[in-house]
Amino acid sequence: MRALMGFPLCCSLLALAVPSTAASAQEAPVATVKVTTTRDPVDKSYRKMIKGMERFEREHALSPAASLRFQLLPRTHDVDMTGITLRVAGDTVSLKVPVESDNSFILPRNEGALREDAAVLANRKTTSMTWRAAIETPGLPPGTRRLGDLRLECRVGVEAGLVSNSSPLFGWLSNALTTADGVCNSPEGNYLFFAERPLFGVRLRHGERSEVLPFHMLYAGGIQTPEMLPFCDCQVLLDRTYYVPLWDKNWPDDTLVEFDYMVDTPQVAP
Amino acid sequence: MNTRALLLSLAVMAGCATGNVPTGTQAPAERLAAAVVPGHTTKADLLASFGKTKTVVFSSGYEAWLYQSPAGGGRFAEFVILLDPAGVVTKTRQRPPSAP
Lengths: 270, 100
Description:
The complex is a heterodimer. Helices cover 20% and strands 20% of the residues of chain A.
């Protein structure tokens, strides 16, 4: 079950790929309906994302020095990750959300958008990107993360519906596998994280104790075949993916997660 | 839709999947440490000396290979090798066997 959290994300694509059974050959009079806005089934729910933000506030003790941002990440090779615009769209509400150059953003709270059950929309195909919470304690050594930050990222990310399975076909499964408590407190509920750069190894360190994570906690479990990869949101970030033992209370929140990158120093373009 | 991919994904989602822990070809740790030299050893050398093993191939052309070394009590140490797109070893790392 190592890669389960990678797969609910895949479900949306699977659902899109399942052939429709609706008959299209029958000719019948068609009523005209004016559609002012459309919601892609994979667009993010504003209400859910606000719930994620509320969870962040409730469990801020996991990461007391950090603030919450959300981040957009590439899912397909051809997506242009520059100049992305984002908005919250309800029936009448439309809010522009500023996106930073690293594609992170802060979601504003708006009662009208909540009331209208608005969607959070990017100007990219929804299946071309994936979303994560970004909670990072300032001042950490380069190439490290803090386990408490990652624990909170998982809880917020799942609560906010960033790991989404919107297909009715898989809805029952999604509910069972994507509750924040189920995912983030269980060895079976692995939540995929993405490092800044391609990874070769990951080590946990707290005080005198340290441990290199096993191979199967990198690269989305190392089980992705070329056939499966297009259905995983790690599709183009496979070499940056890792799991950490969020559930293991023997590793305190202050544990450092240290990265050994494939290439030691970032290559600078000539 | 690729039916096989769909069924495979469903199986994993339903908790039916096995093999979540990659299994690498077994080789003695000392032999691996002595024979695999970053900047020198190639993919062909690895195949000739240790055989095929668990491999993850990335879109960048890099590959991560996993060999496992028996450590007694059913435990295994890991020897992980990074190959660059030219097929040359650039890094290795070892992970001691987990505590029983």
